[in-house]
Amino acid sequence: MLYTLAGGGTLCGLAALVLLIVSTATDFWMQYRYSGASANQGLWRFCINHKCHAHTITVAFWDATRAFMLLAVLSCFAGVVLGLSAFANGTKSRRVRMGGIALLLSGFLALLALAIYTGVTVNFFGKRFLDWRFSWSYILGWVAIILTFVAGVFQLCAYQKNISEPPNIQES
């Protein structure tokens, strides 16, 4: 049962890691109309008619969202590596537990990043642009949050199951 839960947690964590990286790196967190042209923006730059530029507005929420997303990616990576290392060296329940904690931390960090972005977007950009919507990079971030929480819970359940089972004594 340990390998099933830990394996499922590691696979969910790996999927979450890919989604977090794609979400953080791409420029489609929000789409809007700017002077009649289609525009989109991500955490690092904005694009108008497929011409992209670095963000010119220096606002703390950009830095906070970027920082929390990068920390979420690093924490998710650590959780996946710890989950995989438990399989490579036999059952290491401590690594599975630490991997589960890292994955849950990743979920909380990404949740914080997306909550900040959502609040600022609705209150600032939502009033600035009439025709706007959240886009696929942003949605991938929310899917990644769900996957990191599921992965963390699976790994912590695997750890709990492992410590509650009696040791396997083989007779010779």
Automatic annotation (TrEMBL):
Highest taxon above the source species: Eukaryota
Annotated localization: Membrane
Key words, A-Z: Membrane, Transmembrane, Transmembrane helix
Bilayer-spanning residue ranges: 67-88, 100-119, 139-159
Membrane topology: Multi-pass membrane protein
Record's GO cellular component terms: plasma membrane
Protein name: Lens intrinsic membrane protein 2.2
Source species of the chain: Salmo trutta (Brown trout)
